[in-house]
Amino acid sequence: MKALRTLLRVAKADLDILQRALGDQLNKQIAVEERIRTHEQALLNEQKAALRDYESHRAFSGYAAVARAGRDALQGELIAIGQEIDRLRTLISEAHVEMRKFERLIELEEQRDKAVAEKRDADALDEMATMRAGRALRS
C-alpha cells in the first residue's frame, strides 16, 4: 500500500512538472505571437513611410527582405513551440492515465483490506456464536 501511495505521489509530481512546462511553453507562444504582431506592425509602418518618401522607398526593399527572413524565423519558432505544446499535452494525458491507474489500485487494495477485515470480524462472531451454542448445549 505504501509503495502505491509513493508511486502516486511521484506521478503527481511528474504531472505538476509537465503542467508547469506546458505553462512555460504557452507563455513562450504568446510572447512569440506578440513579437510577430509587433514585427508586422513595424513592417507596415516602414511600408507606409516608403510610399511617402523616395529614399525610404529605396531602403525599404532591403529592409523588407530582412524583415521577411525575421518573420520566417519567428514563424519557425512558433511552429516548434506548437509541436512542443502538443508533445507536452500528450505526456500530460498519459500522466493522468498513470495517476488514475495508481488511484484505482489503491482503491482496490483498500477494498480488499476492508473485505478481509469484515471476514475476520464475521469469523470471530461465528466463533463466539459457536462457543455460546456449545455452552448452551452443555448446560
How many distinct helices? 2
- The helix/strand class is mainly alpha
Largest sheet: none
Number of domains: 1
Helix content: over 70%
Unreliable sequence segments: none
Q: Mind telling me the C-alpha Rg?
A: 34 Å
Counted beta strands: 0
Order of helices and strands: HH
The backbone outline, from C-alpha atoms, is rod-shaped
End-to-end CA span: 48 Å
| Fraction of residues in β-strands | under 5%
Query: For the residues shown, what is the average pLDDT?
Result: 92
Describe this structure in words.
Helices cover 98% and strands 0% of the residues. By secondary structure, the chain is an all-alpha fold. The protein has one domain (2-99). Helix 1 (2-52) runs antiparallel to helix 2 (54-138). The protein is rod-shaped.
Question: Briefly, what is this?
Answer:
The protein has one domain (2-99).
